[in-house]
Amino acid sequence: MPSTVELRTMYEGMVTARRYEERLQEEYLEGKQPAFDISAGPIPGELHLAAGHEASGAGVCIHLRDGDTVTAPHRPHHVAIAKGVDLKRMTAEIFGRETGLCKGKGGHMHLFDPDVNFACSGIIAQGCPPAVGAAMAAKKRNTDEVAVAFLGEGAIDQGGFLESLNLASVHDLPVVFVVEDNDWAISMPKERVTDVTDGSQRANGFGLPGVRVDFDDALAVYDAAEEAVGRARDGNGPTLIEVQVHRRMGHFMGDAEGYRPENDVERASRLDSIPRLAEDLRKRGVDDDGLEEIRTRAHERVEEAIEWAKEQPEPKPEAALEDAFAGPPEGAAEPPAAAETDGGERSDGPRITPGERSGSDGGEE
Ligand SMILES: Cc1ncc(C[n+]2csc(CCOP(=O)(O)OP(=O)(O)O)c2C)c(N)n1
Ligand SMILES: [Mg+2]
């Protein structure tokens, strides 16, 4: 059961994330309408908003420290905010500015903040193997750090996720997998791609505990995550948690959602976890003024981050290739010089002709 201070922290994080995305939405649409030109406006490219997922990020990350690792998918803002990613530099990244977390080259799906060990990726389930790697590193270094990988229910059939469950389980690694089940993978309802209605059952085949939080009450997520993170920190291995969340928006900004029944949108809005958490706070004695104070602080922080980001310089074209390629690790041999080509053929190394190949494998020709 969270303390009132923890409840307030979760509420502030969730309100910040919601307000942040409302403001990103406004900024994003600037210049893109009426014909929805995805390259126009201050935030070019795709934008996936996580409104309706906030309780999951807040309820899990409240148990984490800066040194713990978190990976998130293409819908990352609520998790990043809950993990304590620098809001100004994150916003500058989303606006493609030089002072962004990745110097403006990653955009909203490729945020990386080494100060709080946070990363996200547009490739679904891609965050699972790195989280397992971080957990393995923590175990080998004998620290009590943990790793958490967030993913959508649409990613639970991906090999990267299933292999990660296996590796985490067989090595008893301090990692928690958090599946955010919003019922949809783009336009695909989940029942059309998997027969398992409870994604936490994926854990059964790999020998780790699986827990389903049927309703995204921040308190319920808090309780499930407290146990899972505690188990990982105490050296007792991984857990898979699935949280039922609600997708309030389209898959991406600009999604006309023609595939989605209207009552599903209405339902997502009705089941919003933020007013419910406000109710919990009222029961703990936080009055309307107290709640308003939290919301005002959150809104001001968001505004400050957006204003700051918009004043930042654009990256210089000549820096486009900087940080794009990794050099060899220290002490490793230099890689061979790039092969020169003549007419599309490799000019270095031995050449194998079809005749030689058939000769070497028994020669059937
Ligand atoms: C490996 C891979 N395959 C396909 C895609 C295209 N894609 C982007 S989001 C998405 C659906 C994701 O659904 P889910 O995991 O449920 O997350 P949600 O968008 O609902 O939060 C797909 C298939 C991708 N990014 N990566
Ligand atoms: Mg989904």
From TrEMBL:
Residue span, Dehydrogenase E1 component domain: 40-318
UniProt cross-references to Gene3D superfamilies, sorted A to Z: 3.40.50.970
UniProt keyword Oxidoreductase present: yes
Keywords from the UniProt entry: Oxidoreductase, Thiamine pyrophosphate
CDD domains documented for this protein: TPP_E1_PDC_ADC_BCADC (cd02000)
Keyword Oxidoreductase among record annotations: yes
SUPFAM superfamilies: Thiamin diphosphate-binding fold (THDP-binding)
Region (Disordered): 307-365
Record's compositionally biased regions (Low complexity): 324-341
CC cofactor: thiamine diphosphate
Protein name, per record: Thiamine pyrophosphate-dependent dehydrogenase E1 component subunit alpha
UniProt organism field: Halogeometricum luteum
Organism ancestry: Archaea, Methanobacteriati, Methanobacteriota, Stenosarchaea group, Halobacteria
